[in-house]
């Protein structure tokens, strides 16, 4: 019972220390943080199982190993030199498409390990890489050559709708009121949309709303097919039909005034369609 109590106390202390030191302590470990994490774990095991040693000795050691890294982190925020000394610098492995063998040897990195790291970045051909650097955290950053980079709408001169955060409004059949309110929607709206889709709230595993008020649901019952949203495509088709009608009216009328009016309206509608089409096609 005594060991269980000591272990639980050590667990609570370690959890609190990790929360204070921040997420960086468990995501991107530098050399200093790596040593600190191992030592704190050893000390926690020591105070949990070594019944002959005084409990306060272990707590004192943990306090020292917590305070020193915490103070050092505060100093590294203001000192670039100290930051580089403690955290290290990145090492360039590939520059201008050429592998720097000396840098690989300095970091004790084999060619196989380099290729493995590149594959984790979905790069299977070294010739496609313009620049690659091993960061201080141990992660490999890769820049592809211009001709091998993914094609984006910007390259094609296309306008796309801005992306915003999607809100999870239903999780495990329960309505999430806070994300729903953040999206400017209500429970009544959600129930109405679910009725349109023909599904019940209890059968929804997850429901998300995008920035344009479209609801996506994934059901517990995978055999049920959820109908696709047709409001936006239908609106786009209606706008294009109106533009075609205006163009047709301008061609069929004999009045110059009416012809000019229809052509002007068709051009204005065309400009409006160009603005909203990226949104309505989402």
UniProtKB/TrEMBL annotation:
<dbReference type="Pfam" id="PF20730">
    <property type="entry name" value="YetF_N"/>
</dbReference>
<keyword id="KW-0472">Membrane</keyword>
<dbReference type="Pfam" id="PF07870">
    <property type="entry name" value="DUF1657"/>
</dbReference>
<dbReference type="InterPro" id="IPR023090">
    <property type="entry name" value="UPF0702_alpha/beta_dom_sf"/>
</dbReference>
<feature type="domain" description="YetF C-terminal">
    <location>
        <begin position="78"/>
        <end position="210"/>
    </location>
</feature>
<dbReference type="InterPro" id="IPR007353">
    <property type="entry name" value="DUF421"/>
</dbReference>
<dbReference type="Pfam" id="PF04239">
    <property type="entry name" value="DUF421"/>
</dbReference>
<keyword id="KW-0812">Transmembrane</keyword>
<comment type="similarity">
    <text>Belongs to the UPF0702 family.</text>
</comment>
<feature type="transmembrane region" description="Helical">
    <location>
        <begin position="55"/>
        <end position="77"/>
    </location>
</feature>
<keyword id="KW-1003">Cell membrane</keyword>
<dbReference type="InterPro" id="IPR012452">
    <property type="entry name" value="DUF1657"/>
</dbReference>
<feature type="domain" description="YetF-like N-terminal transmembrane">
    <location>
        <begin position="2"/>
        <end position="72"/>
    </location>
</feature>
<dbReference type="GO" id="GO:0005886">
    <property type="term" value="C:plasma membrane"/>
</dbReference>
<keyword id="KW-1133">Transmembrane helix</keyword>
<dbReference type="InterPro" id="IPR048454">
    <property type="entry name" value="YetF_N"/>
</dbReference>
<protein>
    <submittedName>
        <fullName>DUF421 domain-containing protein</fullName>
    </submittedName>
</protein>
């Amino acid at each position: 019972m005594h060991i269980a109590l000591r272990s639980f106390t050590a667990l609570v202390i370690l959890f609190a220390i990790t929360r204070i030191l921040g997420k960086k302590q468990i995501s991107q470990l530098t050399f200093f943080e790596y040593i600190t994490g191992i030592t704190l774990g050893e000390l926690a095991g020591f105070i949990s199982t070594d019944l002959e040693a005084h409990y306060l000795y272990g707590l004192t050691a943990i306090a020292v190993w917590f305070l020193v890294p915490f103070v050092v982190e505060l100093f590294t925020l203001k000192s670039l030199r100290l930051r580089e000394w403690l955290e290290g610098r990145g090492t360039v492995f590939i520059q201008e498409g050429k592998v720097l063998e000396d840098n690989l040897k300095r970091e004790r990195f084999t060619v196989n390990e380099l290729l493995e790291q590149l594959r984790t970045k979905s790069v299977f051909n070294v010739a496609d890489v313009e620049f690659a650097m091993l960061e201080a955290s141990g992660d490999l950053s890769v820049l592809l050559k211009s001709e091998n980079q993914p094609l984006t709408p910007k390259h094609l001169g296309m306008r796309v709708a801005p992306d915003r955060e999607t809100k999870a409004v239903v999780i495990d059949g329960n309505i999430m009121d806070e994300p729903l309110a953040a999206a400017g929607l209500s429970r009544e709206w959600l129930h109405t949309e679910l009725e349109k889709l023909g599904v019940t709230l209890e059968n929804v595993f997850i429901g998300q709303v995008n920035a344009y008020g479209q609801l996506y649901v994934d059901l517990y019952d995978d055999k049920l097919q959820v109908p696709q949203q047709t409001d936006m495509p239908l609106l786009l088709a209606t706008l294009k039909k109106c533009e075609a009608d205006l163009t047709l009216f301008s061609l069929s009328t004999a009045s110059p005034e009416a012809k000019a009016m229809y052509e002007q309206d068709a051009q204005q509608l065309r400009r409006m369609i160009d603005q909203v089409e990226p949104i309505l096609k989402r």
